[in-house]
Amino acid sequence: MSKQTSGQPRRTMRQNLKELPAQAWLLTIGATINRFASFATVFLVLYLRSHGFSLPKAGAAVAAVGIGELVASVLGGHLADRIGRRNTIALSMFCSAASMLALSQVRPFLAILAVAFLAGTFAELYRPAGAALVADVVPEGQRVTAYAVLRFAINLGFAAGVATAGLLADHSFFLVFATDAASSIIFGVIALLSFPDNRSPAGTQGEGRGGYRRILSDRAFAFFLVASALVALVYFQQQTTLPIHVLRQGLSKTDFGLLLSLNGLIVVVFELPISVVTMRVPARQALSVGFLLIGLGFALTALAHSMPMLFVTVGVWTVGEMISAPVGYAYVADLAPKELRGRYQGLYGLFWASGTVTGPILGGLLFTVSANGFWALCGVLGLAASALTFGIRQRLVTLGEDDVAAIERAPGGLKP
Q: The domain at 211-416 falls in which architecture?
């Protein structure tokens, strides 16, 4: 993510998109097809309820999927560095297809829990490999655009896919699982035919515990992981305390759905244009602003007692999301040595996903004590994450000369 100098003409979004390599577009196409049909787990509760399982048991199956997704972040990163990005994506997709079909057939509850865990693991196993592949094939200065395109396509595919899934479910739940499996197979075939076999040479894989010791000794990355976990705790209040707040204002579930729809609409329309601006800004500054806006947006919820005010708050934290998300992936890619890119992205995904656990637990406890106090705490956490990210000054990890040169060129790297 190289900073544009004042002597260079400003690049347009069209120029940035045209110069993305073909493999980045193929990854985006494959991920979009897969995300369009990744709706089996969304309908899992309804599916299990239709087979007579209680709501607590259905919820336990969804939790098993979530635990699998957390495991996938670390395991997927390790495999991406060990067996290569292409092979990890293909393994993820083909095994995901098999697990989705199995989930539609198993009936004993313990078997459902086991297969749901595998489904969550394999469905998300590709993500660190995909993020690392972008870093492999996209030049440093174009990575923010590449990650923004990938997020745009995935969000658009999911939004369109969920609506389609409802139509399929009305006819047969099996069609939901079968379509999900088919999309995974398509993505797996695209990976095998289109992506390079870029396994690291023997001796450069940073294998095992030694590789993770190198990563954890990278204090710049460690600080960024902590900041990401803090802001993720705040961000995932959209799934827990925000709906409670909306209902407490006398609004409806439909109103809450409209708020989340606004978030998706803003991301689809504005994230790519915003990425043209953020790619010119040093990464630490962009991330700090994004994290601050996420915290501020949720803090303002304490003052939002009507739909117009709630629209404003959602708009604020959505802008923060659009600024920080693509830059975050690119920043991690710039920090990581090539042979550890998968594990860097996997740990980043794990710490971000930790918000799906810490958010509901802490949010539920603290919101019942003082709702306004909790929203204020969200603002404080966003400020802390922003300050922590902006305060990252240097990398205290031993790197090769090529790695040091790359990070020095990257905004927010070794420069004071």
A: Up-down Bundle (1.20)
